[in-house]
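Lab notebook, bench 4. Still working through the backlog of constructs that have no structural model yet. Next entry is a single chain of 54 residues. Request: give me the structure tokens for it.
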Amino acid sequence: MAYVSTAVTAGWLREPDFDIPLPGPDFADRITELLAAAANKPDVSDTLPARSAD
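Model written out:
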């Protein structure tokens, strides 16, 4: 999520006259890469310790 805000902020700094900041031309490719990397991470949700009743 940090990438999205940074990309939009950079777009606003590049084109401050636009009402809606525009990310750079590689934005969609970068988001695709980030989603693919996240999809390839192993699921570790079942390895967390159980919560105590306290």
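Notes after review: Residues 32 and 38 are 10 Å apart (CA to CA). The radius of gyration is 18 Å. Flag for follow-up if needed.
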